[in-house]
Design brief:
The protein is of the alpha/beta class. It has helices at 32-42, 56-59, 62-68, 147-158, 174-184, 189-198, 209-215, 224-229, 238-251; strands at residues 2-8, 12-18, 23-27, 45-50, 74-76, 86-87, 93-96, 99-105, 114-120, 126-131, 134-135, 138-139, 166-169, 207-208. The chain has a single domain (2-251), classed as Ribonuclease Z/Hydroxyacylglutathione hydrolase-like (Metallo-beta-lactamase, Chain A, 4-Layer Sandwich). Strands 1-2-3-4-5-6 form a 6-stranded mixed β-sheet, covered by helices on one side. The chain starts with a strand and ends with a helix. It catalyses: an S-(2-hydroxyacyl)glutathione + H2O = a 2-hydroxy carboxylate + glutathione + H(+).
């Protein structure tokens, strides 16, 4: 499996994901000319478009992409997604070439946010495209959902994936996310190591599920040190910590 990030807009990522024969799907191709040009350079044969959620900086290129690649299926879970042809259900599986894809409903950032978990049937490689639900070192804002939903999406749904699953998120927010992580979890060596690594890596994807569990505070809501830093009692629930983390992150200026 070959996954190619395509930087779009100011800090978005679209992706091209290919199997060993070059059969591919694209994820959130908000700037179709950039993605199509990269696909041509890769000699990738695009067979599908996957959309993580309806926000225009992710789905806004769908109509133009479909016009450029007629009859391409467009997968997503929200009726607000432009050019949607295939409405996926939670846990539904489908295949693109040798790539086996499972849709994972992760509502909170939007009510229709979905992550796409991919396994390569030939190589066994695993990846998940998380849109604006899980970022490297952070998570998306709770625009249409609750702390309880994000807690489930991150620490039940995504955390249950194998630790070696590569994480491809929707934005390059890693440096700012890690500044906040260092603020709420200052003694964590994983945060410091990742921040140091970022200094010499402009593109910080992919991460992995296992690594996110080590340094992403939103996947460490049960940690006593984080609770203390937030001024919460040790008895605070995971949902309470999730809500407090998001509130603190929204106000954080670093």
């Amino acid at each position: 499996m070959r996954i190619t990030p395509v930087p779009c807009l100011g800090d978005n990522y679209a992706y091209i994901c290919e199997d060993s024969k070059g059969t591919a799907f694209v994820v959130d191709p908000v700037e179709p000319p950039k993605v199509l040009s990269k696909a041509k350079w890769l000699n990738a044969k695009i067979a599908a478009l996957l959309t993580t959620h309806h926000h225009a900086d992710h789905s806004g290129g769908n109509a133009a992409f479909v016009a450029a690649v007629p009859n391409i299926p467009v997968y997503g879970s929200d009726s607000r997604i432009p050019a949607l042809t295939n409405v996926v259900k939670d846990g539904e599986s489908f295949s693109i070439g040798a790539l086996e894809i499972r849709s994972l409903f992760t509502p909170c950032h939007t009510s229709g946010s979905v992550c796409f978990y991919v396994q390569d049937g030939d190589t066994g490689e695993k990846a998940v495209f998380t849109g604006d639900t899980l970022f490297v070192g952070g998570c998306g804002r709770f625009f249409e959902g609750t702390a309880e939903q994000m807690q489930k999406s991150l620490n039940s749904v995504l955390a249950s994936l194998p630790d070696d699953t590569a994480v491809y998120c929707g934005h390059e927010y890693t440096k700012s996310n890690l500044k906040f992580a260092a603020h709420v979890d200052p003694a964590n060596p994983g945060v410091r190591a990742k921040a140091d690594w970022c200094e010499s890596n402009a593109c910080t994807v992919p991460s992995s599920i296992g690594d996110e569990k080590k340094f992403n505070p939103f996947m460490r809501v049960g940690d006593a040190a984080i609770k203390k830093q937030l001024g919460l009692p040790e008895s605070a629930s995971d949902v309470e910590v999730m809500g407090a983390l998001r509130s603190a992150k929204d106000k954080f200026r670093g």
